[in-house]
Amino acid sequence: MPVILPSAWQAQLSGAIRDPRELCRRLGLDDSWLPGAEHGHALFEVRVPEAFLARMRHGDPDDPLLRQVLPLAAESEVVPGYVADPLSEADHTPARGLIHKYTGRVLLITSPACAVNCRYCFRRQFPYEENTPSRSQWETSLEHLSGDTSISEAILSGGDPLAASDRQLAWLVERLDAIPHLKRLRIHTRLPVVIPDRVDDALLEWLGATRLQKVVVLHINHANEIDDAVVEACERLKAAGVTLLNQSVLLRGVNDGVDALAALSERLFEAGVLPYYLHVLDPVAGAAHFDVPDEEARGLVAGLRDVLPGFLVPKLVREIPGGASKAPL
Ligand SMILES: *Cc1c(COP(=O)(O)O)cnc(C)c1O
Ligand code: SF4
Q1: How many angstroms does the Cα of residue 154 sit away from the middle of ligand 2?
Q2: Total-model pTM
Q3: What pLDDT shows up at residue 30?
Q4: Same domain, 316 and 267
Q5: Mean pLDDT for each consecutive 10-residue tract of the chain (329 residues)?
Q6: Which helix (H) or strand (E) holds 65?
Q7: Residue 185 gets which letter from DSSP?
Q8: Which of 32, 54, 173, 207 has the fewest CB atoms found within 10 Å of its own CB?
Q9: Is 102 near ligand 1, meaning CB less than 6 Å away?
């Protein structure tokens, strides 16, 4: 029997830091904040791969990358309006693992896992286990796509779709490729940012093989997330014919300033990525401390327009349950 070794990225994923105390220790930080934060960690465990940790500043509790992944006591506060399923996604799942809310585009929950657990994530309370399709459930999703000619774009989402194995992804994309009315394959992922080695030959093989037009929407919130390895991963994706976009979430204490947002746009463009959306926070329970009020958000984007070319200014949007698209602010 041949031994199947995990890919380099899979080894990095399974070696990710999962202990908040270790995270602090590695950054030379005091962990006295932890007693109040245990609850958040128990609900949604810490997960930080080494490659992401390496971009954090040592000894700085306010590091913008650390703030995205470090549980705080504030997560346990009950804040009115902050709920478990702010987008009511449970109402839009015609098949397990499939969300059809917008015309022409269908979202497939391809993998429940993420390479990093972001504290502000609206999926932190999503019942993934119930939405992780087996192969036979995939067939049901694929039937839904095949049977509805109004769908032109399949969006692989999660969790992080690239946390699935290349074998599974190659199978799925081949099946999507065979649906004649599909034009585009879109992948919403943070993995090429968190573990740039994810963009390896095995991934480029199935991605390069499809006839579908390919769009990868990365998720980067701060310029410091983009190191040389991320730039190289973006270059490999572009060489495979992928259009690269980015979505960010506006987060208190991470990117809530014109300078930080402008630096992010500039750095994205250096990596060959265009800013797409800047999302205001979804009101998920446990994330209220990241909120930036709408008026302030509008002011920040107005400030960006003053200093950047128009194509580097992301669209400020909010997701509204039941809305036909993301709503501009
Ligand atoms: C965001 C989202 C999409 C994609 O919307 P675009 O505006 O095309 O980027 C599709 N389906 C769902 C359920 C979404 O949340
Ligand atoms: S879905 Fe995206 S934002 Fe949410 S935890 Fe995973 S990587 Fe982070």
Answers
A1: 19
A2: 0.95
A3: 85
A4: yes
A5: 81 96 93 76 93 97 96 91 80 76 94 93 62 76 96 95 95 98 98 98 98 98 98 98 98 98 98 98 94 98 98 96 91
A6: none
A7: E
A8: 32
A9: yes
Number of compact structural domains in the chain: 2
Distance 114 CA to ligand 2 centre (A): 6
Task: Check: CB of residue 290 under 8 Å from CB of residue 297.
Answer: no
For the CA of 99, the closest atom of ligand 1 is 13
Q: Of 52, 75, 98, which closes a domain?
A: 75
Instruction: Output the CA angle 191-197-203, nearest 5 degrees.
Output: 75
Q: Give yes or no for a cis peptide into 147 (omega within 30° of 0).
A: no
131-182 tens-digit pLDDT: 556 778 889 999 999 999 999 999 999 899 999 999 999 999 999 999 999 9
Question: Do 238 and 297 belong together in one domain?
Answer: yes
Strand partners, 315: 277
pLDDT digits (tens, 9 = 90+) for 44-84: 899 999 999 999 999 999 999 999 999 998 998 899 999 88
Query: 18, 46, 75 — which closes off a domain?
Result: 75
Find the CATH number of the domain harbouring 109. 3.20.20.70
Q: Helices 201-209 and 166-177 meet at what angle, rounded to 10?
A: 10
Give the residue whose CA is nearest to atom 3 of ligand 2.
121
Cα separation, 50 vs 42, whole angstroms: 21
The backbone torsions φ and ψ at residue 284, rounded to the nearest 5 degrees and listed phi first, read -90, 140
Is-contact 96 133, C-beta < 8 A? yes
Distance from the alpha carbon of residue 104 to the mean position of ligand 1, in angstroms:
10
My answer on whether 236 and 268 are in the same domain is: yes
Query: Contact at 8 Å (CB) between 278 and 250?
Result: yes
* 117, 140: one domain: yes
Element (H, E) at 38: helix 34-43
List the domain range (segments joined by +) for residue 259. Answer: 89-328
Q: Whose Cα sits closest to atom 8 in ligand 2?
A: 118
